[in-house]
Amino acid sequence: MKILIIGGGGREHAIAYKVAQSSLVDQIFVSPGNPGIADEEKVELINLAIDDLDGLLAFALKEEISLTIVGPEKPLVMGITDLFEQNGLKIFGPSQKAAQLEGSKSFSKDFLAKYKIPTAKYRTFDDIDEAIDYINSKRMPIVIKADGLAAGKGVIIANTKKEARETVFQMMDCGSLDGAGRRVVIEDFLTGEEASFIVMVDGKNALPFATSQDHKRAFNNDTGPNTGGMGAYSPAPVVTPEIHQKVMDKIVYPTINGMIEQGNPYKGILYVGLMITAQGRPKVIEFNCRFGDPETQPIMMRLESDLVELCLLACEGNLDKAEINFTTQAALGVVLASGGYPDSYEKNIPIVGLDYIFRATDTKVFQAGTVFMRGIVSTNGGRILCVTSLGDTVKEAQTQAYKQIRKISCKGSFFRSDIGNRAIERE
């Protein structure tokens, strides 16, 4: 089989790493990919942008691609699944209408409310004055979400009314997110512990993946601005068997059945960002229509089943026949980020020390914002790479990941030193 993977970050590197292990696969094309992905077995990089839907379609038809796996949300929200299926191609990812669960925060919140799926109280605003009046009536902190794709920058936790008003002004009046925030969702701030709950869906059946926990804030102890994610580990002990069942019964299947009722059956990865309250009640923070990043990196390190086989079963509506297995070991990934991230940062800074980590059998470096410059792997993004290690416990995986990431040097870069501490406290 020939496989096409769309995307070029750490998530797509982890997907390519796992797809390459499938006995069903002869060749893998990744567009646009990165230097780390290019080093994986069976992989060839293709220089097409993730939003060049016509170019990707033409390539897939020419090469007679057996299966396309979409990494990032943008092409899904643009309708790549519909386009490929209309041309007789098998593709793993939700339709354009189903992808609204991530593409539109207002659609997502209205959907949750309609089907009585637990989430924070909210209101949606198109008028800036009405939004500010609402802010003035609320107790802080509150959460402000841009309605639309904002490259991980569309969610702000405002601790003061002044900060909330300024955020709304920047989004709605100044267009700081390229139009994504012309409409905003303002919701109550939930307290508890976050977890990532990822399931594969075939339209009617759901197959849960291993649980994980992301770390969104830039700095230790969950301080600093929100980011795309500074590290993750799997499994997440906060998701007990009882909570796991609650999520499936009260969130996942009501979502799947609601999408069927609306005429938009959901096929692909459904990522449920959860807040687990102190009373053990899971509530939805957000939906994503694809694998998380950096959660995918530790999850793929633990996955023992054939990812390609699972994707094919999902495309065919046969996940009820599937089994999924993960190693009992834990995995933990630490993100190395460019200085200044998630705001402005320099690019094209050489990365030194990657060769040292290649020798570690229980560690994998998943590259994200990297590029070849004069024969050297250099930085090309805010999140540079994710060093991911296995261990018999989260503590062992954490120790190994930090041991390896300290072998890497890159001017101005930084990483959090507390990834996994919550799980270790539970252990």
TrEMBL record:
SUPFAM superfamilies reported in the protein's UniProt record: Glutathione synthetase ATP-binding domain-like, PreATP-grasp domain, Rudiment single hybrid motif
Keyword terms: ATP-binding, Ligase, Magnesium, Manganese, Metal-binding, Nucleotide-binding, Purine biosynthesis
Source organism, top-level taxon: Bacteria
UniProt cross-references to InterPro entries, sorted A to Z: ATP-grasp, ATP_grasp_subdomain_1, PreATP-grasp_dom_sf, PRibGlycinamid_synth_ATP-grasp, PRibGlycinamide_synth, PRibGlycinamide_synth_C-dom, PRibGlycinamide_synth_C_sf, PRibGlycinamide_synth_CS
Catalysed reactions, as listed in the record: 5-phospho-beta-D-ribosylamine + glycine + ATP = N(1)-(5-phospho-beta-D-ribosyl)glycinamide + ADP + phosphate + H(+)
Names of the cofactor(s): Mn(2+); Mg(2+)
UniProt EC number: 6.3.4.13
Residue span, ATP-grasp domain: 109-316
Pathway info: Purine metabolism; IMP biosynthesis via de novo pathway; N(1)-(5-phospho-D-ribosyl)glycinamide from 5-phospho-alpha-D-ribose 1-diphosphate: step 2/2
Family membership noted in the UniProt record: Belongs to the GARS family.
UniProt cross-references to HAMAP family, sorted A to Z: GARS
Protein name per UniProt: Phosphoribosylamine--glycine ligase
